[in-house]
TrEMBL record:
The record marks 192 as: Important for substrate specificity. GO terms for molecular function: homoserine O-acetyltransferase activity; homoserine O-succinyltransferase activity. It is found in: Cytoplasm. Keywords: Acyltransferase, Amino-acid biosynthesis, Cytoplasm, Methionine biosynthesis, Transferase. One of its GO terms (biological process) is L-methionine biosynthetic process from homoserine via O-succinyl-L-homoserine and cystathionine. This is Homoserine O-acetyltransferase. Transfers an acetyl group from acetyl-CoA to L-homoserine, forming acetyl-L-homoserine. It is an enzyme of class 2 (transferase). Pfam families: HTS.
Amino acid sequence: MPVTIPSALPARRILEGENVFVMTEGRAGHQDIRPLRIAIVNLMPTKMATETQLLRLLGNTPLQLEITLIRMASHDPRNTAQAHLDAFYTTFEEARGDKFDGLIITGAPIETLPFEAVDYWPELCEIMDWATDHVYSTLYVCWGAQAGLFHHYGIEKYPLAHKMFGVFAHRVLDPRNRVLSGFDEVFPAPHSRHTEIRASDVEATDGLQLLAVSDEAGVYLAASTDGRHLYVTGHPEYERDTLKAEYDRDIGRGLDIAVPRHYYPGDDPTQPPMVSWRSHAFLLYANWLNYCVYQGTPYDLAAISSHTAPPSDED
């Protein structure tokens, strides 16, 4: 089944060109099923690119999804046309009265700032608190994961001596966890960040479980024990050339940036990068949608609350 998006959204043409199954709102309205309602709080400056990356992963499941794009009213984005925001995005105030099966909070290239110094931090905290009673399961990505772990559990982020930049091997710690169903014991995923979350802090926190780590990149995947919060510190949604574009941009600015590790063949930036993480990226999103959202969310969204219990294996 497809992901349902507005007919005019630029991502639609890109995804259809890749043979990704998307459906217009008009066609979806004729199907006699309840689609999963997924909201995306898009904090990335390259909003259109991020839309395409996330919708590509969300569209590769047997579930029909209805997507709502949310932007920060307290922040004025400089890299996305206002016409695009007006046409395809809603503010949190406009979405506040709705309930959603799932929520994705993206990363943002601001991890060196203290959380409280981010201009939209109060609004984002309000969204994360609102989601407790209005969203069944939330997926936090990169800086979004750091923000969620800090807000919900007080887990700090720490600066790195050098940017964590490249594609790294990760070890599955709990192969029985449904989020990791079908994963290889070791799998690759991209990272691009200047700060880190420490495994010892996650392991010492009640209500959290560490699911996957990297010997080089550290924590990759953590989850609340009830499955309603999933934290991904990397960027599984990245495309083939995303890390390359970041590297080329920084080199063009004269910054002292290392070649992204394990990304180019032989770590040679004159060679075209190879994609090694795509299958696990699709699997991660499919598992989140199936096991964390679809299997537990109530049919009547009005029933979602902080006390909504996930299904047990005996259900």
